[in-house]
Amino acid sequence: MPSNPEPTLPEPRRPEPPTGVKARRVLRNPRIWVVPGVLVGLLSLLMSLLYLGGILDPRGDLHDLPIALVNTDRGATVAGQQQNLGEQLVTGIATAPGQGDAVSWRQLDEATAKDQLASGKIYGALQVPPEFTASVAALGGTSERPARPTVLQYTNPGVGSLGSSFAAQIGQQAVHQASLALGGKLAALPQAQGLDNAARLLISDPVAVTTTVGHPIGKRSGLGLSAFYYTLLLVLAGFFGANIIGNGVDVALGYADNEVGPWRARHPVVPISRTSTLAVKCAMSVGLSLLTSSLIMLAAVVVLDMDATHLPLLWIFSVCASSAVGLGVQAINAAFGGLGLLISMFVFIVLGLPSSGATIPLDALPSFYRFLSLFEPMRQLTDGVRSILFFDAQADAGLTRAWVWMAIGTVAALLFGFAMTRYYDRKGLHRTVPELA
Question: Are residues 182 and 265 in the same domain?
Fold first, then answer.
């Protein structure tokens, strides 16, 4: 007998794409535009005002740029009288009219000036050498080619190329004006009347400026900007790391969907309080900062050969800095939910970058940014990294301030974050997710 044919199974049908509301209809609804439009518009406006507002006129915004004046002149006899022209030159520069409050001249001795250059407290220095008065007196002598009196100018690239450049420009202009004033006095002396035209021209502007680096830094230091970019990497690692960790924990606990391309999945909800969830995220932020800080240091110092000293201290500081940023982001996200991303971005990046004083010195920023720099994390962290990289990890070069503010920020973040989550838990505001049909 013929065998019965085996029944054939129907081929599985692919699920039809859901039909319903069209994209055109959604876009026509004005309510869907309101919240994104307001947030994106405000973000664009504020970022434009904050970033551009601090860089448009740094010379016009200069306020108390610290530059040292050092007089080591021993004095000599000029026109029959014992004089110290170096002291007169320094005093004339410090009291010259028309400077306003753009510069803060600091009359220091040589040792103090070198110490402040080495700790980043001043942006440059002008030093009158010991034989200055004697060189000036020789201009009216019998020598055919008298040595021109010289003022030494020291730059400080460790405080940033722009700040050091400002100090150098201001110093040269100040010496030039003082030289013209000194030249007028010399031209009025009786012994200057018989000089030839070349000698008169030399006397009219007698002082030259020789510029040298007062506190050198390594060649692979980005002209003093490597400290800023290294700090930026630490902040970004803490910021993005905290958000990645937060989303990953929420997915693992079932409070957020996991979408990869066209695939979407949701894990079973784990009954856990907001406080415990924050504790998990904070612990992971601290733990992974060990990895991120090590990789940043590996890339910068080993692979790219960035000039760096005090490597163990730099590593410890980097871990603590990245952890502090991560804890701050976790606390803000726990308190404000979805808005936490924008708030933490403003706190750590949008307000931090223009007020860090790294690319444009704080003394060349408007007063609003100088106010932000008193507490903004990026300024404190930049000072700490700069101290380690450029100023021999001196405590008074910004390192102590960085540690103190890092500790204050960490404690404040933990207190704020856990206070908010405990409040939500006590009020029964749990992170419940409705069951899907």
Answer: no
